[in-house]
Amino acid sequence: MTKAFEALSFPCGKAMANRMVLAPLTNTQSEADGRLSRDEIHWLAMRAKGGFGLTMTAAAHVNVLGQGFPGQLGIFSDEHLPGLTTLAEKIKAQGSLAVVQLHHAGFRAPRELIGDMPVAPSPSEKFGARGLSHGEVQSLVEDFIRGAERAKKAGFDGIEIHGAHNYIICQFLSAEFNRRTDEYGGSLKNRSKVLFDIISGIRKRCGQGFLIGVRLSPERHGIPLSEAVETAKALFAAQEIDFLDISAWNVFKEPAETAFQGRSLLSYFCELDRGEIRLGAAGKVYSPEDIYYCFEQGLDFALLGRAAMLHHNYPNLLRDNASFMPKRTPVSREHLLAEGLSEQFLEYISSMWPDFISA
């Protein structure tokens, strides 16, 4: 496991002390207006103190109409800056890189939550969403850029652009959901224009020393593996980002598409020429052996989600004991509360993963 504790530098000049990253985990702990709560600051600061080389927030929506779930962190207003500034300070004080994930739910924004019709690249009767006008697409790009500027003002080292899980950027990338006929639709290059415009805008306005990452879905959500690979290739070729985060759901799986089976899903991304851009993945990375598998596949870092919920100090425990093995679920509420998860977080977990918490 020596590699797990090697420092990792990024093209922007930032570096993390080890190669274990806290995955961006939905937790519904923020206030109704998007301000950070004490509970969420506590949960994240504990992971930084526990030794994660990079501590990433849950998805932070860049526009009030882009909220995807109750209790979601916001970054669409300067009113969010005090809490974000406190969080950045606490994370960085522990020697961990502080990163905000920027997000817009698109047609996945519940109408009853946002109080309006959700928006999407194209009208969707299925999701009850209206299509964005050309000007609104440009405003969407600006929302992400301004979110990054707020993150920088708050003291964060950088941001990750959420382009996965069928949220709005993923919707633009998908020919299934993006049926536009302007420069934001049609070819994959056009469908990815929103993403690349956001990246270029953030790089221009936040500077070369600001950390920029992108999260992509490698398949599903109307994204064929071949197009996901082409998007990754284009990101690597442009050399404007610092890292790519593949949300694989399961790093051990083969592709869903029969034509690509016979090798791991990750291998299609690890074999690409990425220059100095770093590559990581999330999905059932749990044990030390799982982390080692990620490096063996050719990844530069591994993102831990549920394992980090169970052990706030997973990296430190592994550093101090090469034989460390994380707990297995289900675990008690008392254990999770001691690990810094609030009652609200536990309620969300119970709704998503009924077998996570013991009776």
TrEMBL record:
<feature type="domain" description="NADH:flavin oxidoreductase/NADH oxidase N-terminal">
    <location>
        <begin position="15"/>
        <end position="246"/>
    </location>
</feature>
<dbReference type="InterPro" id="IPR051799">
    <property type="entry name" value="NADH_flavin_oxidoreductase"/>
</dbReference>
<dbReference type="GO" id="GO:0010181">
    <property type="term" value="F:FMN binding"/>
</dbReference>
<keyword id="KW-0285">Flavoprotein</keyword>
<dbReference type="InterPro" id="IPR001155">
    <property type="entry name" value="OxRdtase_FMN_N"/>
</dbReference>
<dbReference type="Pfam" id="PF00724">
    <property type="entry name" value="Oxidored_FMN"/>
</dbReference>
<dbReference type="InterPro" id="IPR013785">
    <property type="entry name" value="Aldolase_TIM"/>
</dbReference>
<protein>
    <submittedName>
        <fullName>NADH:flavin oxidoreductase</fullName>
    </submittedName>
</protein>
<keyword id="KW-0560">Oxidoreductase</keyword>
<dbReference type="GO" id="GO:0016491">
    <property type="term" value="F:oxidoreductase activity"/>
</dbReference>
